[in-house]
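User: Can you help me understand a structure? I only have the sequence.
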Amino acid sequence: MAATVEITEEDGSYTAVDTDSGVSASGESKALALMSLAVALEDSDEERNEDTETALRSLAERTQRRFENESITEDDVEDAIAWARSE
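Assistant: Let's start by predicting it. Here is the structure, written out as tokens:
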């Protein structure tokens, strides 16, 4: 599905909205509104990537603690991987 950007004008100010994400930005011209939208979308993507990275780090920390609590070693993990690949 192709992304859609809607541009509206009111009192000489333009607003560009990415309809997929809902991210919007304004400018004194269509071009400035679109450039501002591009920056806002990039910022939105970076925030989403940071949220994903934070979630992955949290998962890794919880997994590490569980492995330590259950005395699971690297050898145990390697054996499990080898077993899973052999199926």
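Now, to help you interpret it: The chain has a mean pLDDT of 87. Strands lie at 5-10, 13-18, 24-27. Let me know which part you'd like to focus on.
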